[in-house]
Amino acid sequence: MATTKTKKKPIKKVSKTTRKISKAMANPSSGIANNKSKIAPYKPKKNEKYMSAAMKKHFIAVLLLWKEHLKEEMKKTFDHLKTKGETYADPVDRASQEEEFAFELRTRDRERKLTNKIAISIEKIKQDDYGWCDSCGDEIGIKRLEARPTATHCIHCKTLDEIKEKQLSG
Ligand SMILES: [Zn+2]
């Protein structure tokens, strides 16, 4: 097999975007689901095959950058938890602190799950399995993937699932 794709395009530096993350710290959840990477949306060429090599490369870059953001955020959440755990001694402070703690733990949990999803998506790209709906096998579509790079279902199946879920939960 001729896999001579050693010429890697350098992935854009994260420095600028990491600065943006510190701003998001006031509301830790805001930055997570947000995939405002510096990578411009992919513009397919005319007649370009869905999930072409270039397309896959693009989404790998997007996912890797996102993972990088997330790693930064997780580190911050962790540091935050650690330093705060040592400060307040006042019981009133402690009560509100515990609330914050719970919140940050949930954030951390979400971050961890998301990191897993990103890793799975990257793996799927490598396996040539990315971008196709897990339920019906249709294209998930570039647009949807740009908005949700970890999407595993097309919008139709996703909507259907949500309706079913709602019906089940009454
Ligand atoms: Zn589907």
Commentary on this structure:
By secondary structure, the protein is an all-alpha fold. It has two domains: 51-130, Up-down Bundle (Four Helix Bundle (Hemerythrin (Met), subunit A)); 131-170, no CATH class. The chain has helices at 15-24, 53-86, 91-126, 142-147, 155-168. The model is unreliable at 12-35 (pLDDT under 50). The chain binds zinc ion. Zinc ion binds at residues 133, 135-136, 138, 153-154, 156-157.
Instruction: Write the element-wise H/E pattern from the N-terminal end onward.
Output: HHHHH
Task: Give the oligomeric state of the chains in this entry, treating copies of one chain as homo and distinct chains as hetero.
Answer: single chain
For the record, give the distance between the C-alpha atoms at the N and C termini, rounded to a whole number.
54 Å
* CATH architecture call of the largest domain: Up-down Bundle
CATH fold descriptor of the largest domain: Four Helix Bundle (Hemerythrin (Met), subunit A)
What is the top-level CATH class of the largest domain? Mainly Alpha
Count, helices: 5
Shape: flat
Please, how many domains?
2
Into which percent range does the helicity of residues fall? Answer: 55-70%
Structural class: mainly alpha
CATH homologous superfamily annotation of the largest domain: DksA, coiled-coil domain
Radius of gyration: 20 Å
Bound molecules: zinc ion
Number of strands: 0
Mean pLDDT: 81
Residues in β-strands, percent? under 5%
Q: What does the main sheet amount to?
A: none
